[in-house]
Specification:
Elements: H1 2-6, E1 10-11, H2 23-32, E2 47-50, H3 52-64, H4 75-78, E3 80-82, E4 89-92, E5 110-113, E6 118-122, E7 130-136, E8 141-147, E9 150-154, E10 161-163
Parallel strand pairs: 1-10, 2-4
Antiparallel strand pairs: 2-5, 3-4, 5-10, 6-9, 7-8
């Protein structure tokens, strides 16, 4: 989130908190802010990532709209749903759940981009990688220890639509 906030993402209109009354409007706003060149681009399929807490509010809000012409299917189990009328895939991830403490500013966040825009990097084949396996005579078990560094990056923050509370 620090990398996205430090870059130049497209910001959705902020509100006080995500609630059942405003969650559909927030996702509609995120969808409407996606640049036209990224919409319906098979090489860049847009996905809106949110926490499971936000996702649960969304599927309950859709249910409460009495929109029975749209089915959520197994969304509560899979954590995936398509925003009705948009084709935008929404995916719940635990990394965006409500956070307390020093990271509380990352609560109620939605990040919309295409998965190929997100990267994970490690320091394998360099300074801090380590893998050890040994037999421990004292408790007669095989033990292992693996250590490395990992980092996350966004390639193009200008191709990210994000929502955060005001």
């Amino acid at each position: 989130m620090k990398k996205i906030d430090a870059g130049s993402p497209i910001l959705a209109t902020a509100t006080a908190d995500i609630t059942a009354a405003n969650v559909i409007g927030i996702f509609d706003d995120v969808y409407s802010k996606i640049p036209a060149q990224l919409l319906n681009n098979p090489e860049k399929p847009m996905v809106a990532f949110c926490g499971w807490d936000t996702f649960r509010i969304l599927i309950l809000a859709i249910k409460d709209l009495n929109a029975f012409n749209y089915t959520a299917g197994d969304a509560a189990k899979t954590g995936e749903i398509t925003l009705p009328g948009s084709g935008l895939k929404i995916v719940a991830v635990h990394g965006l759940n409500a956070i307390t403490g020093s990271l509380a500013s990352y609560t109620d966040r939605i990040v919309c981009t295409y998965p190929a825009n997100l990267f994970v990097g490690t320091d394998l084949i360099s300074e801090m990688e380590e893998a050890k396996i040994w037999y421990s005579e004292d408790d007669q078990n095989i033990k292992g220890s693996i250590k490395w560094k990992v980092g996350y990056q966004v390639a193009y923050t200008t191709e990210v639509v994000t929502y955060k509370n005001s």
